[in-house]
Amino acid sequence: MIEVRDLHKAFGAVKAVDGVSFTARDGEITGLLGPNGAGKTTTLRMLYTLMAPDRGQVLVDGIDAAADPLAVRRQLGVLPDARGLYKRLSARENIDYFGRLHGLPEELLASRREALVKALEMGDIADRRTEGFSQGQRVKTAIARALVHDPRNVILDEPTNGLDVMATRALRQFMTRLKEEGRCVLFSSHIMQEVGALCDRIVVIAHGRVVADETPDALRAQTGENNLEDAFVKIIGSEEGLAA
Amino acid sequence: MNDMSAKIRRSGAFLTVFLKEVKENLRDRRTLMSAFLTGPLLGPLLFVMLINVTLNRELDKAEKPLPVPVLGAAYAPNLIDALKAGGVVPGAAVADPAQTVRKQDADVVLRIAPDYGKAWRKGEPVQVELFYDSSRRDANTSVERVSDLVENYARQQGAMRLVARGLSPGTAWPLQVARRDQATPQSRAVLMFAMLPYFFVITIFMGGMYLAIDLTAGERERQSLEPLFANPVARWKILCGKLAAICAFSTASLLITLLGFAVVGRFIPAEKIGMELDLGLHFATYVLLLMLPLVLLLSALQSLVAAFAKSYREAQTYISLLMLVPIIPSALLSFMPIKAQAWMYAIPLLGQNLGIMQLLRGDGVTVEQIGLCLAGSLAAALVAVLVTAQLYRSEKLAISA
To answer: What angle do CA B165, B167, B170 make, to 5 degrees?
Structure first.
């Protein structure tokens, strides 16, 4: 479970995150929805302790990120916005590197790695060097190495960015599977349909603030719009009106 | 229990990072070439070529017949005979002696005035002209040879005139200088090998350079630093693993270059010009010892500089500039020779430079000098590592865009 309480982060005069609070529960997929530049990536970066918040608190499975960042990172599997792989290592070697950094024993590492290679259907590319991988192959490898230590909580920053239809479908199925395994899945997106189809809960962020935190159905009901996209525009639009 | 063993394995993160970086970079051809081929072997090769060319030229000029165009040879047959006896081959007259020298058609041209014979017979002083270009270093030996021959001939003739007038030749030269050169064969070699320490430093530099760039700026540019930092490993441990990988590569470079110099040292005909050169095991061991703290210092400095850069290219530019810094002590010592004080050994680069020169001179280094050298450089290296570690803690470091 990931709990976020009143996060603030400013870069100079720009308030990137300005009071964000929400909870992502185990066995649920929580979507962080917002237009580009809304503060999604910055919020996630504070969750996986890459950045320290100016104010507010992050709790992962009850552990305070400010007090014990290493313990928090152990509870998390992270696919950051930056998904750079080591191009002179094969996909398997990339996964192994992260597994060893997590301190996995070699036998466990091997079995976890092979399970992920199978689940993500990347058997044909696993021994190739990652140089020249397609976007989809890169994302698969990056997800596999992020999940190799079997984390309870999974954070994915715009996971379907740049993927084709087939790869996107496969990835959505994989996320559903993670949820069914009882994990807490938190992902960010700016794609309406994706969030609507997958999420148990939607947290809408605009201008660094949470403007809605509901189930998809409640969101539709609240705005009186049947179409989620219209609901989204309405929420953000009215928020802009308030801010002005 | 399980938690305990995981903790122990995670403490091996340093080793994990180190092994991964070494493996990854062993697969990169450019890094391999720079660390194990061009970097370490260019020095010894260049060195042996340079030395051989210089030595052979010196040897050639001292022994070989020296062709010198002479104007007005007919006016002074005795002088010409004396020159011939000294190995000079008088050549045909040239139209414009100044132009001939300037165009490098001859090292030196001799002009004898038409009134030479008349003045000589009257016993009056007479002038012969030597045309040469002192900015042409390689011609200096020839110029000196001709000028010495002419002056010796003059002195000889002067002495004979004095004797003919019943005077002792000593009256004309009341004072004589006796030179007592204290240079040993080794110390003469030092002049020529002043750049040797720089070669070693450059080798260390080249050996670690691509890793240093790749491990910070490169990793950031490829956007792999952010995922790496999401792992439950303290950043300073990651940094240490990376530094160790850089050190391993630059130490390997240094070893190869020392081996190269040991082999090449056998082919330098130093003894021919009265020098002695020992680049063997004894020398290599001491150099390695003196250089080890520099390996750490340079790898930390390279990482530091590369971490400031936003891209691979930018890092490359900064590091090339950093590469100029180690020239300073070598240049300083060769242009303005200073007497070494004890404290100088504690200064990184300068200490190593002085120590290696001592070794070349055959004087050996004292325990105190080694101690100062190691302590000074190690302290500087630790500061550089700490500053780099501090930089690694910055939030901005991991963010690629």
So the answer is: 140
Contact A82 B225 (CB under 8 A): yes
Q: Report yes or no: B311 at the A interface, CB cutoff 8 Å.
A: no
Q: Clarify whether residues B336 and B313 are in a common domain.
A: yes
Chain A residues in contact with B394 by the CB 8 A cut-off are none
Predicted complex ipTM: 0.91
Question: What is the pTM (predicted TM-score) of this model?
Answer: 0.81
The nearest alpha carbon in chain B to A86 belongs to B224
**Domain membership of residue B287 as a residue range:** 2-55+186-398
Residues of B in contact with A97 (CB under 8 A): 16, 20
- CATH number of the domain where residue B70 is located: 3.40.1710.10
Domain count, chain B: 2
The pLDDT of residue A239 is 46
Low-confidence ranges of chain B (pLDDT < 50): 1
- Decide if A101 and B10 are in contact by the 8 Å CB cutoff: yes
